[in-house]
Amino acid sequence: MTKKLFKIMTMAYIILLGAVFGASIYAGAVVAPTTFHSETLLGGEIISNFQEGLIMTVNFEKLGYFINFMVFFVLFYEATKWKNFESDKWTNLATFLFVASGLLFTSYYIPTIMELQVQGEVVTKGETFRNFHFASELNFKLFAFSTLALLIFNLKKALR
Length: 160
What we know:
Strand content: under 5%
Largest sheet: none
Number of domains: 1
Shape: elongated
Helix content: over 70%
Number of helices: 6
Distance between the termini: 20 Å
Number of strands: 0
């Protein structure tokens, strides 16, 4: 790969990492709290908490498409750097966490939550669902943290 092409790929990589980080933070800090507290905006409960959860799941499912794309882009970019002996242990660790938590989120947590929602509102009020949902939130925070770490490590190298 030529140096010019790799520089262009590095710029795209950094921009897309920033975009997926921003989308993740926005989904978790703005969209979720707004969706799950719609009664404060609408002046009363119009839809149930279960229905709000269905809406939120669709939002995260759509974000999952971008996350899956980024998982493959990160793997390709970081493997190229590794092949050229340009990677370090911290970037490799952040890459592993990014890929693992991203795939867990899109391939395990979202589909399972959707399956549980299909079983009905009663299932989503149970202890099992609450624990599973909490684990998915922790995983999503790990994903956001690893995205930020990859962004910082690559910006640091790119700005040398």
